Inverse folding.
């Protein structure tokens, strides 16, 4: 699944320059020209990056501040485009991660986007999961091990399928066996949702530092291998 970006601007030069850069690195761009439209879009969809023309769009700075207070897009990487009214310091205080001065150029935008890509991919791994073929066990009752299949995983949690219904809200002790890792990873978490058929979503809560590094390394390696058509799904929401 391609990265997704939203641009709030009425400036055709900004549209053209940013689209050229993002198209070259396969980031899908949607353009909005009013604050009302952008606000509505951000409520409905999640984006990896948000670019906002702070000085030439009415209420644009408010949209940027609202972004950080919202739910679905509060962690997306934000670029503030400024034109002499908003200072660089003010843009950062509003919640921007990167600042672009007008007139913007392809080279300057490209440098900023390259610098942001690592942050964008880290947020992807943290809040989205990718499908895997892996297994593990969960310790239930008096330490009895219940085998399960992993359907998708991220830095924040895992979705599983097992032979019994788990109690939502209950504690979970997990042992994950991931392809390419020699020994299982032991983690503790909380069951966020479950179904009578044995599907469940578990959010990680207690992870040893060494285990955390192994999981992050594994996710980083496999994120590079994700191809076209890979499905990303939310870690904490139930899916049919």
């Amino acid at each position: 699944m391609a990265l997704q970006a939203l641009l709030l601007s009425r400036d055709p030069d900004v549209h053209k320059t940013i689209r050229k850069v993002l198209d070259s690195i396969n980031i899908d761009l949607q353009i909005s020209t009013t604050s009302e439209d952008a606000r509505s879009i951000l409520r409905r969809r999640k984006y990896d990056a948000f670019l906002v023309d702070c000085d030439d769009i009415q209420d644009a700075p408010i949209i940027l501040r609202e972004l950080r207070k919202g739910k679905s897009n509060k962690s997306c990487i934000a670029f503030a485009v400024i034109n002499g009214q908003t200072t660089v310091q003010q843009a950062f205080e509003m919640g921007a991660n990167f600042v672009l001065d007008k007139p913007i150029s392809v080279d300057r935008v490209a440098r900023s986007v390259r610098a942001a890509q690592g942050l964008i991919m880290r947020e992807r791994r943290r809040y989205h999961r990718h499908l895997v073929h892996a297994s593990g066990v969960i310790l239930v009752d008096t330490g009895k091990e219940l085998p399960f299949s992993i359907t998708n995983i991220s830095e924040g949690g895992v979705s599983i399928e097992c032979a019994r219904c788990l109690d939502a809200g209950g504690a979970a002790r997990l042992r994950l066996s991931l392809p390419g890792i020699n020994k299982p990873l032991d983690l503790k978490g909380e069951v966020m949702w479950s179904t009578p058929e044995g599907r469940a979503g578990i959010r990680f809560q207690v992870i040893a530092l060494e285990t955390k590094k192994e999981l992050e390394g594994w996710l980083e390696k496999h994120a590079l291998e994700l191809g076209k058509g890979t499905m990303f799904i939310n870690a904490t929401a139930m899916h049919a």
User: Anything to note?
Assistant: The longest helix spans residues 106-127. The longest strand covers residues 128-140. Helices lie at 12-24, 35-44, 60-69, 88-94, 106-127, 209-223.
